[in-house]
Amino acid sequence: MILHDFALSSASYRVRIVLNLKGLDYEKRSYALRAGEQRAPDYLAVNPAGLVPALEVNGLRLGQSLAIIEYLDAVYPEPRMIPADPIERARAMEMALTIACDIHPLNNLRILKYLENDLGQDQAAVDTWYRHWVEAGFATLEQLLPDAPYAGGDAPNVVDACLVPQMYNARRFKTDLTPFPRLAAIADHAAAHPAFATAAPPPL
Amino acid sequence: MILHDFALSSASYRVRIVLNLKGLDYEKRSYALRAGEQRAPDYLAVNPAGLVPALEVNGLRLGQSLAIIEYLDAVYPEPRMIPADPIERARAMEMALTIACDIHPLNNLRILKYLENDLGQDQAAVDTWYRHWVEAGFATLEQLLPDAPYAGGDAPNVVDACLVPQMYNARRFKTDLTPFPRLAAIADHAAAHPAFATAAPPPL
C-alpha cells in the first residue's frame, strides 16, 4: 500500500490517521506541494487531479480522502470509521463533509496561493479569508458534535480524522478557538491518541 | 419529507435529482440566498450551517447533500445511487467528491460574494476565478469518467446527480467546454432524463 502524501496536507493527514487506527502498514511518498511536485507527469498518472492524497491499494489508485477512507472501511472494517447504521452514518458524514466541503477546500494551499498571486491579496487579507471560513464551519460543528470524548462517541471515527487536521491548520492560522469549546476539547482529546499523534505533521 | 431548497443551488439540485430518481414525494421550501433567508433563526434551527439543502425525513434534520443522498440510498435503496461494491463505490465517490470538494465549494454564492464584497474583485476577476476551478476539476473528471452513457454506466448515479448541476453552473459562467467532450456528453445525456429535467432550475 502506497500513500502519496504531504505532511501538512489536511486531507493526507486524515488518511494517515485512518491507516494508523486500522493498523495498516504503508509506504509513504512525499510531494513538495509548494514546488508543484504533485503536477509532475509521473504523479498525474497516479492521480489525474494532481492533488494529495492518493492511495495505491489492492491494484487500485484512488484519490479523494473521504473516498479512500470509505474504501478502507469496507475492506479493512476494524475499527469502523463510518457507522453502519444509516442515521448514525448520516450524522457522521454530515460532520465530516462540513469539514471536507465547507472548510478545507477554501483554505488549502492552492487557494491561498491563488489569493496571493492571482488576486494580489496581502498576508492579512489571506489570513482573514482563512479564519472567516474556518470559523463559519467550526460554529456549525460546535452544534453538531456530540457531548462525548470523541466525535465518534467513545472511540474515534471519520469525523475525528477530519477534525484533528483541520484544528492543526486552524491553530497554524491563529484562529480564536474560544467560541468552540466542545470542538476544541474533542480535537485535543483525539490528537493525543497514538494513532493520531503518529500521523501528525511537525509540531507548530 | 421537506426539502429546504434554492433553485440555483447546485447542492440542492443534486438532492432534487436523487429524490426524483427514487420517486419520493417531498414538500419544497425555498430560501432567497442573496437576501440571506438561510441565516434566519427559524432555518438555523433546522440546519445550523445556514446552508441549503437540508432534508427533514423520518424525524431527522440533515444537512450536506452527499450525506443526504447516502441516507436516502440506505433507506430507499431503489434505484441505487452509490454502488454497493467497495471498488465501484470508491470510484463513484472519488468522482462525486471531485465535484463536491474540489469544484463546488469554491464557486458557490457565498464565495463569489466574498470575492466581490470583501476582496473588492470585479466581475471579470470573479468569472476568471470561477472558470479556473471548474476547469481544473473538469479536467480530472474527463479522465475519471467511464466510456458509458451515464457516469453511473447504463443508469444514472450519484456522480450524474453531482455533474449535471455543476455543468448547469459552468454554462452559466460561460466556461469553455471543448476540452471536456466525454464529460459534456454524459452531462447532457443525464440532463435529458425526466428525473433530472424536472429537478432543473429555470433554463439559462
Automatic annotation (TrEMBL), chains A, B:
Signal peptide span: none
Matching Pfam families: GST_N_2 (PF13409)
Limits of the GST C-terminal domain: 85-204
PROSITE patterns assigned: GST_CTER, GST_NTER
Coiled-coil residues: none
Domain GST N-terminal: from-to ranges: 1-80
Gene Ontology biological-process entries: glutathione metabolic process; L-phenylalanine catabolic process
Keyword entries, A-Z: Isomerase, Pyruvate
GO cellular component: cytoplasm
SUPFAM superfamilies named in the record: GST C-terminal domain-like, Thioredoxin-like
Record EC number: 5.2.1.2, 5.2.1.4
Record-linked InterPro entries: Glutathione-S-Trfase_C-like, Glutathione-S-Trfase_C_sf, Glutathione_S-Trfase, Glutathione_S-Trfase_N, GST_Zeta, GST_Zeta_C, GST_Zeta_N, Thioredoxin-like_sf
GO terms of molecular function: glutathione transferase activity; maleylacetoacetate isomerase activity; maleylpyruvate isomerase activity
Family: Belongs to the GST superfamily. Zeta family.
Protein name from the UniProt record: Maleylacetoacetate isomerase/maleylpyruvate isomerase
Source species: Novosphingobium hassiacum
